[in-house]
Design brief:
Number of helices: 0
Number of strands: 26
Shape: elongated
Radius of gyration: 21 Å
């Protein structure tokens, strides 16, 4: 397993990923990781490289550039190992089903962000694992996302699905925070997590000792709330909850004071609190 370090300043080819002279050991390949150790030259061109499978990406805190741009993501077929962002860098990656181990990201500094897109249809990503850091998922589909799952450190990992964002079939969180402003999370299971769902679809929700702000107008098919809180009171728009179940000391508030929330079935078990919708 080798490495190749980004220089990026070859005259006339500044910022081009696919220029061998911009690297210490040639363009990244399946046999080596791309390292960004220092300097400030961002990767801004040749963002659909000929060698689209690489071993991994390592970004040092001494590197102050970015990888890819908000308009043009770096397209990679496979990233065998993890993406390690140690600074406040913005990394824009698009990948898909041929990323055999999925995408695994770690970020040790607040502000550093992995901006992620996947392909569509057959190019869906099988797995995203956020050990630590901040990921914004813009488009495509991911079969399974794990956030802070059984990581021994305490972190502030965050996942954001923005307006127009992609689809996650299964999201499992053990700590960290979710902000959903769009897209679809078909099933969400959260342990000790802060969830802010302002829009988009999340029909299946199971939480344990978590805090949930539920403001989306999409229907909640089934909510299982084990401890913690579920609060739909802060948004006046009409919304429907087919079934919600409170367990333990769960606190559930479905009254926004405007009579625009419909709850078909509410089952409360334990010593928690349930505030039904006002008429």
């Amino acid at each position: 397993m080798g490495v190749t370090d980004w220089i990026g300043t070859d005259e006339g080819n500044e910022g081009k990923w696919d220029t061998a002279a911009n690297w210490t050991n040639g363009v990244p390949s399946p046999a080596n990781s791309a390292r960004f150790l220092d300097g400030d030259q961002s990767v801004t061109a040749d963002l659909t490289p000929s060698a689209a499978t690489i071993l991994g990406i390592f970004v040092s805190s001494d590197y102050t550039g970015n990888i890819g741009t908000a308009d043009t993501f770096l397209v990679l077929t496979d990233i065998t190992n993890h993406i390690d962002i140690q600074g406040g860098n913005q990394v824009y990656i698009q990948t898909g089903k041929d990323c055999t181990n999925g995408v695994r990201v770690r970020n040790w500094v607040s502000g550093g962000t992995l901006h992620l897109k996947t392909g569509t249809g057959a190019d869906d990503l099988t797995r995203l694992k956020i050990d630590r850091g901040y990921v914004i998922f813009y488009a495509g589909e991911i079969d399974k996302v794990l956030v802070d799952w059984r990581v021994s450190i305490t972190s502030d990992s965050r996942l954001k699905v923005p307006v127009g964002g992609g689809t996650i079939d299964l999201l499992e969180m053990d700590g960290g925070a979710l902000v959903q402003e769009g897209g679809t999370i078909t099933e969400c299971k959260a342990h000790r997590t802060s969830l802010t769902i302002t829009d988009g679809a999340c029909p299946g929700l199971t939480t344990y000792d978590s805090t949930t702000l539920w403001h989306t107008t999409s229907t909640l098919t089934l909510g299982e709330i084990h401890g913690g809180s579920f609060d739909a009171s802060g948004d006046g728009r009409a919304k429907t909850i087919d079934e919600i179940r409170g367990h333990g000391d769960a606190r559930i508030n479905t009254d926004n004071g405007r009579g625009t929330i419909t709850v078909t079935t509410a089952l409360i078990e334990g010593i928690g609190e349930y505030i039904p919708p006002s008429v």
